[in-house]
Write a structure and sequence with these properties.
Layout lengths: L1 H11 L1 H11 L23 H4 L6 E6 L3 H17 L3 E7 L2 H7 L8 E4 L5 H11 L3 E5 L5 H9 L4 E6 L3 H9 L1 H9 L3 E4 L2 H9 L4 E4 L11 H13 L4 E7 L3 H13 L7 H9 L3 E6 L5 H10 L4 E3 L12 E3 L6 H7 L2 E4 L12 H5 L4 E3 L7 H10 L2 E3 L3 H12 L2 H18 L2 H14 L2
Length: about 450
């Protein structure tokens, strides 16, 4: 009866969802494309009975809701293709950034569609249309009606690379009447860490093992690394990156920079801006593309000149602050930078994935809020590849201190490069577990 009430609420919210998608499409046009897929209507996308007719191929459904999960899925999908001959990828997303990034994972015969809205009608149409052999939810996405529909269709639905913070557990326990049956209804869960596994089991999730974090297996784009490194060598000053900055955090950085400049004030704010810009080049990459224009305006209002990546023809152009307003180029930005601040960690948002930075050899300075990536943050800190600050002012000081000590900076870079080698292998372990699960059906 409780899930029926939940289903009714989601059904009633469908007009609001359509309205929200159209509003977001003004800034990110991809949100306005193929809206029917959100409700289980696939138009010209062939059904499984047509696309797979006369073959032994089958769909493996991988759900990567947003950009971070899609990046994490890349190494796993590669290992799944090796382990499961005949596999075709059915890839779903909830955000425009995830869908844009996910196109790089596709091969001929694969399918990419939007995640269905979690009403019984939409999820049943999705399952009937594609008939996946197995479903793999990456990291966090567990939807009650989807879990129930997969169980009824006898299609194993699994949570892979699962992370589950203490905050997520508290929220789920407040909605235990809905969350507990959803987690109990999964066929299997493979967690990133022992702590994640413990919390997931408290909700009744069938945790079969701890496989580690597949993000350590991701390989940065070699061409981006080479270009970023070449640009960095050509510069006469170090680059400090604010990676995946979230709303409100850029203002914290700009305010901190203005405070650092205060002792250097001679005649005007503009003089001080030039003084600090001559020592350090700041690069800001907002987490969400719809905020690129707003961040550029914010920087200018604070008295900083801005050069946007989208305007560069032959390389970085002179300005107080560079704005990374492109998608899919984080490897380039990390290779261009000497040290990175971790977005999402200076506001109580839980941080962002720092593994991509360390894979590119870029040390990280984190704020106090890293609960969404607690284990990765702790491992990086212990290895000397990341450093925790109490606030933005402290973080800027720590970045500048690293730049002033060439041996310390090189030691942190070496530790960052080693992190992935020391903690890799999760993608293969997960792929092997999925293969064994399917073999036992």
């Amino acid at each position: 009866m409780t899930r029926a009430l939940y289903s009714l609420v989601l059904w009633l919210l469908q007009p609001l969802l359509r309205m929200r998608l159209r509003l977001r499409a003004r800034a990110e046009p991809l949100y306005g494309e193929r809206e029917g897929e959100r409700f289980g209507h696939y138009g010209d996308v062939p059904s499984a009975s047509v696309a797979l007719a006369g073959s032994t191929d089958f769909y493996v459904w991988v759900h990567a809701v947003s950009l971070g999960e899609t990046r994490a899925a890349q190494a796993l999908v590669n290992r799944l293709r090796d382990s499961l001959p005949g596999m075709r990828l059915l890839l779903t997303h909830g955000t425009a950034t995830g869908r844009a990034m996910g196109q790089a994972l596709l091969q001929p015969g694969d399918v990419q569609v939007w995640q269905p809205w979690d009403t019984p009608g939409a999820v049943n149409r999705f399952l009937a249309h594609f008939q996946p052999r197995v479903g793999l939810l990456v990291e966090t996405e567990v939807w009650p009606n989807m879990v129930a529909a997969c169980a009824l269709a006898r299609m194993p639905l699994c949570l892979v690379n699962a992370r589950f913070s203490a905050k997520s557990l508290r929220q789920s326990q407040r909605l235990a009447w809905l969350a507990r049956p959803a987690y109990q209804g999964l066929r299997a869960v493979w967690a990133q860490s022992g702590e994640d596994a413990i919390r997931l089991r408290q909700l009744g999730a069938p945790v079969l093992g701890v496989t580690g974090n597949v993000k350590y297996d991701a390989t940065p784009d070699a061409s981006q690394l080479a270009r970023g490194a070449a640009w960095r060598r050509a510069l006469k000053r170090p680059v400090l990156l604010f990676a995946s900055a979230r709303e409100g955090e850029e203002a914290l950085l700009l305010e901190a920079l203005n405070r650092k400049m205060a002792p250097a004030l001679v005649k005007s704010k503009q003089v001080a801006t030039k003084n600090i810009a001559s020592e350090v080049q700041w690069l800001i990459v907002p987490r969400h593309p719809q905020r690129f224009d707003a961040v550029a305006q914010l920087c200018q209002e604070q008295g900083f000149s801005v050069s946007r990546r989208s305007h560069w023809s032959r390389g970085p152009e002179a300005a107080d602050i560079w704005l990374g307003d492109s998608l899919g180029e984080m490897a380039l930005y990390f290779a261009l930078s000497d040290v990175a601040l971790l977005g999402g960690s200076f506001a109580p948002l839980g941080g962002q994935n720092l593994i991509e930075a360390t894979a590119c050899g870029c040390p990280v300075v984190m704020g106090p809020h890293t609960f969404n990536f607690a284990e990765a943050s702790e491992l990086a800190s212990r290895a000397g590849a990341a450093f925790k600050a109490v606030d933005m002012d402290d973080a800027v000081d720590r970045c500048l201190a690293l730049l002033q000590s060439a041996p310390a900076l090189q030691q942190a870079r070496t530790a960052a490069h080693s992190l992935g080698r020391d903690h890799g292998g999760a993608a293969q372990r997960t792929a092997t577990a999925v293969q064994q699960l399917l073999a036992g059906l």
